[in-house]
Hints:
The complex is a heterodimer of chains A (842) and B (120). Chain A has 24 helices and 6 strands. Chain A is an all-alpha fold and 842 residues long. In chain A, the strands form 3 sheets. In chain A, strands 1-2 form a two-stranded antiparallel sheet. Chain B has 120 residues and is mostly helical. Chain B has 4 helices and 2 strands. Chain B has a two-stranded antiparallel ribbon with strand order 1-2. The longest helix of chain B is centred in the middle third of the chain and has 31 residues. Chain B is elongated and about 55 Å long. Chains A and B meet through helix 8, helix 9 and helix 20 of A and helix 1, helix 3 and helix 4 of B.
Amino acid sequence: MSAAGAPSSDLAMRLHRDLDRIWGTPPGVGRLSAVNHTIVGRRFIIAAFVFFTIGGLLAMLIRAQLATPHGAFVGPELYNQIFTMHGSVMMFLFAIPMFEGVAIYMLPKLLGARDLAFPRLTAYGFWCYIFGGSILVVAMLLGVAPDGGWFMYTPLSSNAYSPGINADVWLLGITFVEISAICAAVEITVTILKMRAPGMTIDRMPLFAWYILVTAGMMLAGFPPLILGSILLEAERAFDLPFFDPTRGGDPLLWQHLFWLFGHPEVYIIFLPGAGMVSTILPVMARREIVGYTWIVVSVVAVGFLSFGLWVHHMFTTGIPHLALGFFSAASTLVAIPTGVQIFSWLATLIDGRPQLKLPMLYLFGFFVVFVAGGLTGVMVAVVPFDWQVHDTHFVVAHMHYVLVGGFVFPLLAAAYYWLPHVSGKVARYPLGHVAFWLIFIGFNVTFFIMHLTGLLGMPRRVFSYEPGWGWDLPNLISSFGGFLMTMGFALFVVDVLLHVRFGRTAPRNPWGASTLEWATATPPASYNFASLPTVSGRHPLGDAPELPSDLAGGRGYLGFAREGRQETLGTHMTAATPDQVIVLPGPTYLPLYTALATGVVFLGLLFKVYWLAPVGAALMLALFMLWTRDTGQFQDRGPLPIGRGASAPAHSEAAGPPSWWAMVFTLVADGVLFSSLAFGALFLWVSAPGWPPPQVLEAPWWKPALAGAGLVAAALAGRRAVAVNGKADASRSAGRDPWLLLAAAGHAFALVWLVLLALGTPGPTLHAYGAVTVALLSYAGFHAALGCVFALFGLWRSRAGYISAARSLDLRIGALWHGYTAVTGAAALLLVATLPRLVMP
Amino acid sequence: MSETARPGKLLLLVTGFLLWSSAFVVLYGVQGLGCRLGWDDVGLGPVSLNRGALLAVWALHVGLIAAMAAIQVRRRSADRGAADRGTAFIDRAGLALTFCALVATIWTGIPILTAGSTCS
Lengths: 842, 120
């Protein structure tokens, strides 16, 4: 081991060989076991682009159909599938996964780490994405694609009006993909907060990381309402639980609330990563530090919150009282301000810098024009009277495309050209990218600018045909022409990238003269990113220390050695970025693939209504997830480990705040949002749905829910006690924790029994939404109690197997988090179940 | 000797807007609940019970965020020079975000004063 000093070039070469052996991925079929972020990130990007191509072809079919009145290209049934799939593919299978791919590939390199916090989770998320997306595409090829719009409004998507599996394909396929999004959000959050290079204090973090951090936080809060909505709608379709059926106490507006609670933040979830790319690339092109770093951070956080206050802005025409519309209209106008702050910061950077009109800058120019126009029409539709006029017309289609293509696709194309030399190690030989830009830019504006007018002329969206002579003929023809022009631009972009990769000249390191850390790696990067990890002393690591790449390659940073064949990287303090742990990461394994296949069994069982298959798949999933833990943990305390540069830090399993503990915290945040959405749904139905009060309510004596709650609270207290006993005891007496873990498991089991009994006693879950939401609340608590039992028994097994000591208490602390959360939400669910009958009955 | 921020201090960046979120959701919830329970038809001095409840919720949240901003201003002046870079940044950005949340909360609640009825 050579920890510090200046190793000779032979030693450095040996270090690179050793690291490559440790971090590398096996060739051939072994590549299916890849968990490395560079490989998985690249796969995400390529897969997302394939889905983008599919979505783009569907858009061309739409434009072919609408080019002339009475278009005979496709009939209404097929057209419904085409426009539904276009929206769904672009939103769920292109935009989100593409940003995830860029973040997965780029973040560790930007932050000065060797990988993300949970490489196997990255791979699992990728497979879930591929399998979920494949369900949708295969369904489309078989002619049973979803056809109720990408927003799946009820009652159209309910069983009565959408029999068959088309809607199920959407609900289950998209939920499958959303697993991937939640995995990515947890992973990204933990990585940014805990794995930045030493010295990269919170105020020195690259702006791209700030944007992605806020985006990931929004995903943790934004996706659970849609996941809940999808579960409830699928439960309605499969088991006739009438959450959205107004004839039985349900309400279609509940679906709209849950959908748009996700759907509007989703627009910003797509835009913010694009803005992060702009904030990264623009200062390099302008050859000036970004103006207003702190104000950009403040604006991004503000946008992250305010974007949630806009969800009813999609429901202005549903009959909601004016006062409530006022709240949402106010928030909708407000969100323009922090967005404007960012735009003015970028403009100020350009004005004060020495901009170079290189290819990425050209695409940023496209971004400015298109996104600002989309933002302005956004302020227009935020105003209720105007929105009433253009609601569900092509004006909204044009606005949405201006925002999403302007806010994400143009920055993405800029990023593609900016980072291609990093990915491929080459620079372009031919200037095709410029031609592609002008085709895309002109084609886009020809398509969508005119579409504003089509909408103002009254043409509704989602219609497959129209009459001649209504003034819509020419605008539609122009839009279709523009669409095909834009497609040629994208085709040229693909050709350009292929030529670049195949025939490009070898790129110099850091061809743009950037100052961020990703350009300190080799290009293309090695599997371990950095032979040793950097120390950062400012916001511009490469600008401050141009010799940094060679120092790191020579092993003169942290962890400049290969220890015991382990994949090691550093964990640091969340704000001060001082090293506080050595994170040991897992190597290539097929487990994520197998686990995703088992997850697929669950979803396919539900899709084809082979319901016995779903629990079999779930049991298989659980067993496989248990196998993930084989490689984690250790049988003895290791104490502080040398990390180079004369410093030392404990292994993550002995650290106070390891990544997996934080991952559980953020997972529970998302889980809490899901529970809050469910509680909101129950109260919303009582307050707003027709057909209340229900004919019957649960008539359980108070002590039954109290006993269930007592079981959950006992489990939580026992879990905490196990951690406390473990922390105090010396090694010989540490077995004192085991009875507490057993008690925690028993508490959960006891609660589960009472929760099941209460659910079985709920009158008529299929007769009225009251019964359905009561069963949903009890099922939520029951599911968590069952998993709590698993957590407690797992802790007990790890304890008895020797994985746990006073220093190695991570398994117990993670379990305690779950037990505590289950007690709090379980008690709240039981309180609501017990109170609801008193609230709803006159 | 500079002070290193604890991870929990990062919450300063979001507390103001968490309160704004609370204001937003509670206002929307109280408005719906009040209409369900007929509070719009019950008088409370010069306004209806529903509007009164909404004004109370709004004022409470504005007061809480303003108090939080005041505390942050006081702490920031007391800690000036003693904090490390990360802490100083969080203090500065956190204060700006709390002020933004205050303005957002005031702006969001203005329709309570201007809407004719709370339920139609």
